[in-house]
Amino acid sequence: MTASLNGKRVAFLATDGVEEIEYTQPRKAVEAAGGQAELVSLSDGEIQALNHLDKAGTYRVEKTVRDADPGQYDALVLPGGVANPDFLRADADAVRFVREFVSAGKPVAAICHGPWTLVEAGVVDGRTLTSWPSLRTDLVNAGATWVDEEVFVDDHLITSRNPDDLPAFCDALLAQLTS
């Protein structure tokens, strides 16, 4: 992609159990386009990423969610993994952080199990999303329309199903940031 993200800041909200490639590949795409990426998490230190259910790399937290200001960022990425969004949706600061991005009309990109945090934030009613198939009932019960597509963009909300969808997911995120 030739578009530049110079001057754009993107928060990646993740914690232990994040699916590694769903964090690293979008982050690399943002940085390769000239944007600044920042790992925001529940506490200081490092988070443990997974490759499906096996331990993968660890990543240094750059800011805690309680100290992060959504106004300082241009977009938010919610990587999946089964445990990561489950921990995030149980944290009031993480839920507030997500809700503020959506309320501000900023791009929010969620992949795989990432939309669980969107459900908890109460921001999916009347929206169309995709996700890992097991989230379908949760999304529908929260008022969303669920579709089985590689990537779906509903206004500033970008969703994808799984790691195989990462190229389309990253392209949609970059397109939102450069439009």
Walk me through this protein's architecture:
The protein has 179 residues and is an alpha/beta fold. The chain has a single domain (9-178), classed as 3-Layer(aba) Sandwich (Rossmann fold), CATH 3.40.50. Helix content is 32%, strand content 26%. The protein has helices at residues 20-32, 83-89, 92-103, 115-120, 136-141, 166-178; strands spanning 9-13, 36-41, 46-51, 54-60, 63-64, 75-78, 108-111, 128-129, 145-146, 151-154, 157-160. The strands form three sheets. Strands 5-2-1-6-7-11-10 form a seven-stranded mixed sheet, sandwiched between helices. A two-stranded antiparallel sheet has the order 3-4. Helix 1 (20-32) runs parallel beside helix 6. The longest helix has 13 residues, at 20-32. The two termini are 13 Å apart. The model has no long low-confidence stretch (mean pLDDT 97).
List keywords for this structure.
DJ-1/PfpI; seven-stranded mixed β-sheet; two-stranded antiparallel sheet; Rossmann fold; 179 residues; alpha/beta
